[in-house]
Amino acid sequence: MEAGELGSVWTESAKKAAELYVESSERLAKMLLELHERSTSWAKETMLAPLFEAQRTAGKQMVESSVEMARKLYGLTKSNGL
């Protein structure tokens, strides 16, 4: 195996690791947002409901923009698995 081929293997491996990390982080963040929604469902008919909804909306926006930025930074495309 030549040095160029070895570099290519390392690059592909690093890219795959970054892709798995971004996808796992995105899944975890979405699960935490769902947990937040379930754990604050008691407040649906209270004055706190808009606060909790604003938190979830801000969290979703943050997750989406962070994942998009990470994919652009690492040159990844969204996989069909998600």
Task: Kindly describe this structure.
The protein is mainly α and 82 residues long. It has helices at residues 3-39, 49-74. The two termini are 35 Å apart. The chain has one domain (3-74). It contains 2 helices and no strands.
Concise account of the structure shown:
The protein has 82 residues and is an all-alpha fold. Helices cover 77% and strands 0% of the residues.
- The H-and-E topology, N to C, reads as HH
Distance from N terminus to C terminus (CA atoms, Å) equals 35 Å
- Let me know the average pLDDT: 90
Helix fraction bin: over 70%
Largest sheet: none
Low-confidence stretches: none
Secondary structure tally: strands: 0
Rg for CA atoms: 18 Å
| Structural class label | mainly alpha
- The number of domains is 1
| Count of helical regions | 2
- Strand proportion: under 5%
Backbone shape: rod-shaped
Mind sketching the topology for me?
Elements: H1 3-39, H2 49-74
Which key phrases capture this entry?
0% strand; mainly alpha; 2 helices; 82 residues
